[in-house]
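Exercise 7. Predict the joint structure of the components listed below.
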Amino acid sequence: MALSGIQIYKLLPQTNCKECGFPTCLAFAMKLAAKQVELGSCPYVSDASKKQLAESAAPPIRLITLKAGTEVKAGNEVVMFRHEKTFYNKPGLFVRVKASDPELAAKAAKADAYKVNYVGMDFTVDGFAVEADGGDFVGAVKAVRNMTRRPLILIADDAALLDSALSLLAGESALIYAANSSNYEALADVAKKYKAALVLKADSFDAFADLTQKVQAKGVEDMVLDLGGKNLGEWLARSTQARRLAIKANQRALGYPTIFFAGQSGPEKEAVYAAQAIAKYAGFVVLDTFTPELAYALLVLRENIYTDPQKPIQVQPGIYEINSPNADSPVLVTTNFSITYFSVANEVEGSGLPAWLVVTDAEGMSVLTAWAAGKFDAERIAKAIKGFDVASKINKKRIVLPGHVAVLSGELEEELAGWEIRVGPREAVDLPAFMKQVLN
Amino acid sequence: MPIEIPKDKWPGSIKKVTLGGTSAEGGTRAKSVTVGGETTLPYLHFEAPTPNKPLIAIEIKSHKPDDWSPLLAEIWGDAMNDPARWAQKAEEAGADLIVLALTLADSPDDAVKVVKSVLGATGLPLIVWGPGQAEKDNDLLVPVAEATKGEKLMLGICEDKNYRTIVAAAMANGHVIQARTPMDVNLAKQLNILITDMGLPADRIMMDPTTGALGYGIEYGYSVMERLRLAALQGDAMTQLPMIVTPGFEAWKAKESKVGEGVPEAWGDWKARAIHWETLTAIALVESGADIIVLRHPESVKRVKDTIEELVTV
Ligand code: B12
Ligand code: SF4
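Solution:
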C-alpha cells in the first residue's frame, strides 16, 4: 500500500541537510509521496528504509503479462470502484477449446479472425485456453498455435504433459491452469522452467495465502487465483473479498489477479456470468461460447467499465472528410465525444454520400451534454467554422446542426453572418435520408 | 495463514418504498411490492442479506409505438394495440410491475381510461409515465393520480423543471414519485430535497439516476449509481432512496438493437445481439444497485430475473 508523506518521513534520516534540494526531510517526503521526486535524490537513506519504501511502492495486485505474438496484462489495480480513479488492465477474454474436439482448429480460427470496431478502436479476443480432456493435448496446442499468435492458457494437471506442450511455446509467457495444494510442486517446477504464470486453486483465503507463499518459495512469482464458488452471488462475494484483501488490507499473499470461467452453466448464462466478471474484478475471463454478438457486447462492456472516468474518449477536433467531399458537399457539425463522432461518421460513411464533418472542441461531451454544459454553443461552433477555414473548401456557405440543438440556429446566424444554418434530424440514423431529400 | 476478511459496516441504510395498493388500502392490486432496505452494497451476503430483491417492470405504451425495434413488435404482436392485453402478456412474461407510458396523443380522459383498463387487466402494481413534455405530463398525470387514489402508483418522470404539480398530485392521492436527474449525485440529492420539502415523505420517492445503454454511456450511469449507494450507506439521508433505471428504453434506442440491416458483420446475429444489449445493460445496473429495472423484451426479463435470483441465493 502506498505510504503517506508522514510515514515516509519516518523512514528518512530527519537531519534536514537540504542536499536533496528541499529545505526539510518532511518536504522531501511529501514530494516522494506525491511521486514528484525520486528517492535517489537523498544520499543518506538507509538500506532498511530503501527496502521498505520499495515494497510499499509495489502494486497491491501483481501485474501478470501473458505474451506470445500479442500480449495481455492483468493486475496492477488500485481501487474498488472505477470512479475512485480508474480500472487499468482490461480482463483478457480467452476462448476455451478442448483437445478432444475435432472442430478445435476451426473454432479457434473463427474466434482468432474476429475483429470489431467500436468508436474507432479495433477489438479482438485476447487468447485461447486449450484443455487436456483426454484427446491429444500436445497436438491440440500445436494446432492452436499454428492458427493464432495470441497467448495461451494451458488447462491440464499432468506436469509431464504440460512440459511437452510448453516446450512448443518457446519464448512465450503462457498461463498454466491449475495448481492446488497437492500438485503445486510439480506444476511450479514446470512453470518456473518455462517462465509461465500459474493459476492456483484453493478452498479458502487461508489456504490461498499458504499456497501462494509455497509456490513463491519454489521460485514462481507470477500467479493467478481461481476463487471458485457456486453461483453469481458467491462469485461476487469472493471476488470482492479478494480485491479488498489485496487493496485495503494490503495482503501481499493474495495480491494476484483472478481468472473466471463463464461457461459453467451453458451458453444461455454465459453472457451474464462474463459481464459480472468484467465489472467485478476478474483479470482473465474464459468463454466456452464464441459468437460475434456475444464477443461484441462483452468487448464493449469491458471498454466502458475500463474507460478512465476522468477523461471521456474523444476525437481530435477538426474538419473530417467523409466519402471524398468536394466544394458542393454539405457541411455537418458535431462534437468531439467519440461515441457522438462515430455515430455520425459511420452513418454518413455507410450511406456513400460525401460530406465535410466539422468536429468542434466540446471537451469530449455528447451533443446535449455539451450544450447543457455550455461547451457546444453558437460561439464555439462559429469559432470552429472560422478556425478550420471551412469557407475555403466549399461553394455554398451552409452548415447543418444536430436536431437536438435546433435552438442554437438563431444565435448562430448572428455569429456567422452570410451563412445558412440548417437544422438536421435528431438522430444520426436519419441523416442519410435528410441529406438526400432535404439538402440539394 | 489465517486471513481476516475485511467487512464494511455502514452507518446508513436505504429506505423501503412500497408500491401497489391492495383492497385494504383502498386499491385493487392483488398484492403490493416493496423495494429498498439495503444495509450494504449489492449482494454482499457476507455483510448483510438482500432484504428485498430488485424487481422487474415491463414497459408498455398507451398507443402502439412506431419507433420501437421490429424485434419488439414481433414478440408482442397485436397486444401492442391494446394496452390491457399488452399488460396481461407482460405479467405472463414475468413482470413484477407494469410501466404504462402515456403518449402525446392521449387526452386527459384517454389517460384515465387507459390507466383504468390496465389496472383492470392485471393485479400488478403500476407505474405511469407522462409523455415527457412538462405541460402535457401535468395535464395527464394529475387526473390519473386523482382517479386512482389508493392504488399507490408510481408517477413519473419528475425532473427539476417539472416536479411540483406531479408531486402535489401524488401527495394528495397516496402515490409514489419517480425522480429523475442527469447522472449526478448532487443533482439527485437536490431534487430529493426539493420534493421532500414539499411534504412528500422520502419513503414515497424512488430515484432515477438516468442511464445510458451499453456502448452509449453506461459507464456514467454505472458509476453514479455506485456513488449514490456509497453516499447513502455513509449516512447521507437525501441519497437513501431506492433506485429505478430504464435499461430497456436506452438499450432499444441503440442501433445495435434497433436495426438488423446495414450493420457490420462483426455485430453478429441481430436478435441475439439485441437481447445481449438489453440484458448486459441491465445486469451492469443490477450490480451497481438498481432496485427496479424497466425492460422491454420478455427474453431479457427472464435472463435478468434469473440473474437476480442467483445473486440473492446464498
Ligand atoms: C452520458 C451523459 C452524460 C455524461 C457525459 C458524457 C459525455 N462525454 O458527453 C455526464 C455524466 C458527465 C453528463 C453530465 C451532464 N449532463 Co448529461 N447525459 C448523458 C446521457 C445519459 C447520454 C448522452 C450520450 O452520450 N448520448 C449518446 C450520443 C451519441 O448522443 P449525441 O451526442 O446526442 O449524438 C446523437 C445525435 O445528437 C445525433 N447527432 C450528433 N451529431 C450530429 C450532427 C448532425 C449534423 C446531426 C444531424 C445529428 C447529430 O447523432 C447521435 C446519434 O443519434 C444523456 C441522456 C440520454 N440518455 O441521452 C444526458 C443529458 C445529455 N445530460 C444532461 C445534462 C443536463 C447534463 C449536465 C449539465 C448535468 C449536470 N449539471 O451535471 C452535465 C453537463 C456536463 C458538465 N457540466 O460537466 C441532459 C441535457 C438536458 C437538455 N436537454 O439540455 C441530458 C439529456 C439528460 C436529461 N434528460 O436531463 N451527462
Ligand atoms: S537529502 Fe535526505 S536527509 Fe537531507 S534533507 Fe533531503 S531528505 Fe533529508
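Discussion. The longest strand of chain A covers residues 92-98.
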